From TrEMBL:
Cellular compartments per GO CC: ribosome
Keyword Ribosomal protein carried by entry: yes
Biological classification of the source: Bacteria, Bacillati, Bacillota, Bacilli, Bacillales
Protein name: Ribosomal protein L37E
All residue ranges annotated as the Transposon Tn7 transposition protein TnsD C-terminal domain in the record: 121-357
Keyword terms: Ribonucleoprotein, Ribosomal protein
Domain TniQ: 5-68
Length: 399
């Protein structure tokens, strides 16, 4: 936009800024705050037109909460001299010599004051670090949080409209010259919340920001977009004492090389159980689905170890108790090398866990680390394998 301004393509600037195609009328007269006017005169000996007072929808001075004047309250004359192209500096008196500084009306309408504050914040470059797409992303993330949008980004337009109308009454919208969003899919509110290349008037954006956040700064705290929604996500280790409890604070996202779809990996900080899933999630219930188990984690392994010491338990029984298929059990029992590694991890893991303060959502696991005599363990596993093979041969367990 700066480049366009330097080239003085004013029409194009208005188009990019969303002012051109807008339903908001452009203000033809300049506005003034009687208290700012007086303050300027006192401080500088002359007054100037304030940018913050000229914004569409701004009816209140953000400093004094005072109603802005468009014209003299006594003679109804505005402050522009139509004979000259650029307005002269504001003066303490109207053309008919009425003192403007005496026309002070303090506004108490919090919506009007808020609108003035938000506009002023934006004018001072409050969101200059964000581009259009990033702002849109923030709206969507916020709407998801408030339940007005699905995790995949489908905005519940009808509900948003109801929410909008519950916060902004027709009287207020008329006052700031904004059209009521109609009851159809093409009203300005729906359009602004649909990913579109068309720019919309800043005032409409301000209304949305004010609707979704309680202060202009709060928008900055909104998290970045994720195809898996917001954490924490549940641990899906079926044998843990925190199964389905939301304990996983972070997701690692990669792109699937074939499908280009996002793949999220979720590692439980309590038990090490790690699963992945291809996104984006279609709805919030998707958080309970596992695409692939990447690691069972030391607690699961240790549980399997303890159970497998009971030689009476067959592969099927083990798989029932461990809540996974017999193939996996077999793979773990045979792969004693990886088992050693995982159990070593358990010892490190439990030490790490001791250092960490237990979070309220994380219940303590009752599995205690065992000092392992590896010579004996090798013999045990050796026996287990022989046993398992014998059972498999005898019982013809179908896998
Ligand atoms: Zn003022
Ligand atoms: Zn007057
Ligand atoms: Zn877990």
């Amino acid at each position: 936009m700066k480049e366009e301004m330097a080239a003085d393509k004013s029409q194009r600037i208005q188009m990019i800024a969303g002012v051109m195609a807008s339903i908001i009328r452009i203000h033809k007269v300049l506005k003034i705050c009687p208290l700012c006017l007086q303050a300027d005169l006192d401080q500088f000996g002359e007054a100037y037109w304030h940018r913050t007072h000229q914004l569409p929808g701004v009816l209140v001075c953000p400093i004094h909460n005072c109603l802005l004047l468009e014209k003299c309250h006594q003679c109804n004359e505005d402050f522009m001299d139509q004979r000259i192209q650029y307005p002269a500096l504001p003066t303490a008196f109207c053309r008919n010599h009425h003192a403007l500084s005496e026309m002070v009306r303090i506004v108490e309408d919090l919506r009007l004051i808020g609108l003035s504050d938000f506009s002023n914040y934006i004018l001072k470059g409050g969101y200059s670090e964000y581009n259009k797409e990033q702002m849109y992303d923030k709206y969507i993330q916020r709407l998801i949080r408030l339940g007005y949008c699905t995790a995949t980004g489908r905005v519940k337009q009808r509900e948003v409209r109801e929410f909008f109308l519950s916060q902004y009454n027709p009287q207020f919208l008329t006052q700031i010259a904004v059209k009521l969003p109609e009851d159809n899919d093409f009203n300005w509110l729906s359009t602004i919340l649909r990913k579109s290349r068309r720019s919309q008037h800043p005032l409409l954006h301000i209304l949305i920001i004010q609707l979704l956040w309680d202060s202009p700064e709060s928008i900055k705290l909104e998290g970045a977009s994720s195809p898996f929604g917001f954490g924490p996500w549940p641990c899906l280790n079926p044998i843990s004492d925190h199964h389905h409890v939301n304990v996983i604070p972070h997701v690692k996202i990669k792109r699937c090389s074939n499908t280009r779809r996002p793949v999220g990996t979720f590692e439980c900080p309590s038990c090490g159980f790690t699963y992945s899933r291809r996104g984006p999630d279609q709805d919030r219930s998707a958080i309970y689905t596992i695409g692939r188990i990447k690691k069972f984690g030391p607690i699961w392994i240790s549980q399997l170890e303890q159970l497998s010491k009971d030689h009476a338990l067959g592969l099927r029984e083990l798989s029932r108790l461990m809540k996974c298929d017999p193939k996996t059990i077999k793979r773990y029992l045979i792969g004693s090398i990886s088992l050693k590694n995982e159990v070593n991890n358990l010892t490190n893991f439990q030490q790490r866990k001791k250092k960490r303060k237990a979070t309220p959502t994380t219940k303590k696991s009752n599995v205690t680390p065992v000092r392992v005599d590896w010579a004996i363990r090798d013999q045990e596993i050796n026996m287990l394998i022989k046993d398992a093979i014998k059972k498999l041969n005898n019982k013809r367990v179908s896998l």
